[in-house]
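Hi R.,

As promised on Friday, here is the backbone we talked about, encoded as structure tokens. Could you run it through your design pipeline when you get a chance and send me back a sequence?
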């Protein structure tokens, strides 16, 4: 049975990053500020941006004013937050007010529950406030909303890049509940702000904040119900082909769901975008609401293809339309953004292999992909069989010098791409020079081993044009292993570094090994140390499963399971020495969070999707327990996998582990 939206409920009391809590409908994304029961922060619904907007609600009960969100340590001066739950598509928060105003009277006692729903199909949100009178007498409740539209503005779709849009000029009031900022109109509507509430009774209020002219009319609660229905439908569609995971390993099922949620919140439905769905790299905080070639295709190609179905081909083609010799991403309208990036070609070939396996791929698309990869390859200076990828501008953006110029990765990815293009040509009927592609791939791998491997150090060196070399113990080197650049002896030397005090830490992986004294630092948990980009830890585990290192793979994966308990969706990067998100200024969600589910499906469960549409399933043995995946939909078949028994079933019929399933 496919997942329901309710199964992605996340208890906000467990969050290690409460300030990062946003909720998205795939059309509007809105912030729920910490420490508040009813407060609403900034919101984005391209092309509309309201980054500094706010909505606060004050209650008046029989003449007593009750503010929302009492300051810590000050007893009873306002509505006290008491928790909440996040789901894809809505946030419910609750609070309590229990205070005696008259020493001889009974306490005023209220339970307050708010539901924040971002709208789908239009820009804005609905806040529903449910107030239960727990006292033994009737009361009259009045809501006093304080809306601050901030500086809302219309931002062209071509300008939605890595950094969230900034506010525009302050909106001015044009009526009791309307504001204007340039050509942007903001309106607050409600269904009444005053109700009599009997003892034990409940009152429900609803407020809607919307942007834009010509909006269809509707009562706030009706708008919320319609948006919730649309959200449930779109998420059910995305989850229909994704298998259900059950496990007796503590934290694994929650991690799996958190990984899936990380993908779900990156899907956007606006028909004005170049594709619908549009796969944003991040987006819930308004930043990186664009599609990077790198993480769209590189980290979870099979999970993404399961979620998107045949729409994956359109996503691939949309990114291929941009000139990747100049840009690394596309804005929602398809405009190229950023600089050329060394990993873009590999990422698109990776996604194309998933498309071919799940749905088939046309020879024309394979030829187009080949030409794109060759053009991007020519963008970087040749260094014999290898390529010089320049400095951090085109690579990992480390803050130290080191992993630059002639490097093992992404040169190894170049070789992998050439081999995969040869295979894609064969399965699709494209007429690529298969022999030449494979010959060049072998030459690249030979050159990596001969020119960059340091036998004494047991690691790759990076070579600069002037002959200087650097040895950076960087997690990216394991990608060179994954892409076939290592002999067994080289791999053995590298695997010895996967230990505590080097790459491994209690809560994940460090991008730069902590014993690399030249390059390790704590200011950039993304790529320089103290943590890693969220896709890197699970991708390392997957690499190890692919290398036959099941025990070591699980040792990496188990260090990440805390994330499912403490994030509703996974952030751009996180610390590995403590259970915490990265410093402020990072994106609060990332599509590469799907890499966790990808590693479990194709690594732990051993599901290998093949380019010709067949598959092989070889479940791994997990030291800490077992995993069952049920309901994997693939080319009209339903596959179930158990690591406990090693059982593989296709449409209910038992198949042998390792058998090719046509």
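Update: got your reply. Pasting your designed sequence below so it's all in one thread:
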């Amino acid at each position: 049975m496919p997942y329901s939206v309710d199964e992605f409920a996340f208890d906000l009391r467990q969050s290690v990053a409460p300030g990062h809590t946003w909720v998205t409908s795939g059309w509007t994304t809105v912030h729920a500020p910490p420490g508040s029961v009813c407060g609403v922060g900034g919101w984005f619904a391209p092309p509309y941006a309201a980054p500094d907007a706010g909505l606060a609600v004050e209650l008046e009960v029989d003449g007593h004013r009750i503010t929302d969100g009492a300051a810590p340590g000050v007893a009873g001066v306002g509505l006290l937050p008491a928790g909440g739950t996040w789901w894809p598509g809505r946030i419910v928060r609750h609070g309590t007010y229990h205070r005696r105003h008259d020493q001889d009277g009974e306490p005023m006692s209220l339970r307050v529950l708010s539901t924040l729903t971002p709208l789908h199909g239009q820009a804005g949100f609905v806040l529903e406030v449910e107030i239960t009178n727990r006292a033994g007498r009737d009361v009259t409740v009045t809501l006093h909303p304080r809306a601050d539209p901030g500086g809302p503005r219309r931002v062209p779709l071509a300008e939605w890049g890595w950094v969230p849009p900034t506010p525009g000029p302050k909106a001015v009031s044009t009526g009791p509940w309307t504001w204007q900022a340039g050509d942007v109109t903001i309106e607050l509507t409600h269904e009444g702000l005053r109700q009599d509430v009997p003892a034990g009774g409940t009152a429900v209020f609803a407020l809607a904040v919307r942007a834009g002219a010509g909006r269809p009319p509707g009562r706030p609660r009706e708008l919320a119900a319609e948006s919730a229905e649309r959200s449930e439908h779109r998420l059910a569609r995305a989850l229909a082909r994704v298998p259900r995971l059950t496990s007796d390993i503590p934290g694994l099922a929650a991690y799996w769901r958190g990984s899936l949620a990380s993908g779900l919140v990156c899907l956007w439905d606006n028909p004005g975008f170049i594709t619908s769905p549009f796969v944003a790299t991040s987006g819930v905080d308004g930043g990186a609401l664009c599609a990077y070639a790198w993480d769209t295709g590189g980290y979870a190609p099979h999970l993404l293809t399961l979620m998107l179905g045949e729409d994956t081909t359109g996503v691939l083609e949309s990114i291929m339309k941009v000139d990747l010799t100049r840009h690394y991403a596309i804005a929602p309208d398809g405009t190229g953004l950023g600089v050329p990036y060394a990993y873009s070609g590999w990422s698109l070939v990776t996604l194309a292999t998933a498309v071919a396996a799940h749905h088939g791929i046309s020879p024309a698309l394979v030829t187009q992909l080949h030409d794109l990869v060759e053009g991007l390859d020519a963008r970087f200076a040749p260094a014999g069989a290898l390529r010089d990828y320049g400095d951090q501008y085109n690579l990992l953006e480390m803050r130290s010098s080191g992993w630059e110029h002639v490097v093992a990765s992404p040169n190894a990815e170049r070789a992998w791409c050439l081999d995969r293009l040869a295979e894609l040509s064969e399965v699709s009927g494209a007429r690529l020079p298969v022999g030449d592609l494979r010959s060049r791939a072998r030459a690249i791998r030979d050159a990596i081993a001969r020119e960059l491997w340091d036998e004494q150090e047991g690691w790759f060196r990076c070579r600069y044009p002037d002959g200087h070399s650097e040895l950076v113990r960087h997690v990216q080197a394991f990608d060179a292993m994954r892409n076939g650049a290592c002999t067994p002896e080289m791999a053995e030397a590298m695997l010895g570094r996967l230990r505590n005090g080097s790459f491994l830490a209690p809560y994940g992986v460090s991008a730069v090994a902590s014993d690399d004294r030249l390059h390790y630092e704590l200011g950039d948990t993304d790529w320089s140390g103290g943590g890693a980009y969220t896709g890197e830890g699970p991708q390392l585990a997957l690499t190890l499963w692919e290398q036959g290192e099941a025990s070591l793979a699980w040792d990496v994966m188990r260090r990440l399971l805390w994330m499912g308990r403490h994030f509703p969706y996974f952030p751009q990067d996180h610390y590995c020495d403590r259970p915490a998100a990265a410093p402020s200024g990072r994106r609060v969600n990332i599509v590469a969070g799907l890499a966790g589910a990808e590693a479990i499906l194709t690594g732990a469960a051993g599901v290998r999707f093949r380019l010709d549409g067949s598959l092989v399933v070889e479940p791994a043995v997990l030291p800490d327990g077992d995993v069952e995946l049920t309901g994997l939909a693939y080319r009209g078949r339903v596959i179930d996998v158990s690591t406990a028994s090693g059982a593989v079933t296709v449409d209910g019929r038992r198949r042998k582990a390792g058998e090719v399933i046509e």
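One thing I noticed while checking it: The first helix runs from residue 220 to 239.

Thanks again,
M.
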